[in-house]
Amino acid sequence: MKYRTLGPYTVSAIGLGAMPVSMNRDGVFPERDAAIEMVHAALEAGVTFIDTADIYAPDHEEMGHNELIVRDALASWGGNTDDIVVATKGGITRREDGSKGRDGSLEYLRSAVEKSLRNLGVDTIDLYQYHRPDRWMVYGDIMQNLKTLRDEGKVRAVGISNASVEEIEIAQQVLGDGGLVSVQNEFSPKHPGSFDELTYCGEQGVAFLPWSPLGGTGGGARDVGERFAVFADIARGHDMSPQQVVLAWELSLGDHVIPIPGARRPQSITDSAKAADLALTADELSRCSAAVGLHMEQ
């Protein structure tokens, strides 16, 4: 496994997006023991970064479902977990009718952080990420609330998710020099729209965490080689999977990029973790970029 810098941490170049065992487009979830087995498989493959969120749950009554799975998986794994970094997110609310809202107030975020601390069974959250902007609030005020929680010692590092370049800049200004350690946006061959944010993060030394890096649950990840044939073609030449080629290409976009592919099965995350060791040629990387509409020199 290769490693990359994530704020104060050194983590595996490929992380685990734990969401699919608790929330996905299919609405099909593994049994709890199987979900824990998937997390164990990630750890055994060398993954040292796990991403979760309080909102990742089958319904509103089970908020924290995914955090609890991550906690129990770490507690029951036979290996050393000292170097495992767990990131969670907050700021999205969930109503009884299944609809979602946003709340970036200090009162709500403090309550959400305290619940996440209990769910994860920790005294301090390694990385706390603001999940989605609350458009009823000034973004800088929300960042000040995150800064307060960091200063209180409830979280060690702060990140943001689903953010524009302007919002990243605001977060940097409020959190201070080096205070913003990561940005987690959707980025994949199907959704390359966050390339500006990816590029800006590289210039600023901020980790960029692509979510749904293979195209998401519900078939996007499974069919990425069919939708973008170049990844399947290159994969055949390396005796690898199209998904591994996608992740290797994303890793090539900068040393600050840490994809967090989701998984429901142990085989999926084991396959993804191997992408860290896949070296593609400059020509192959250029073909990948061109296939998704990104024209650049590799």
TrEMBL record:
One Pfam family linked to the record: Aldo_ket_red
Cited CDD domains: AKR_AKR13B1
Every NADP-dependent oxidoreductase domain range: 14-290
Taxonomy, superkingdom: Bacteria
Keywords from the named record: Oxidoreductase
Keyword Oxidoreductase assigned: yes
Protein name: Aldo/keto reductase
Species whose genome carries this gene: Microbacterium aquimaris
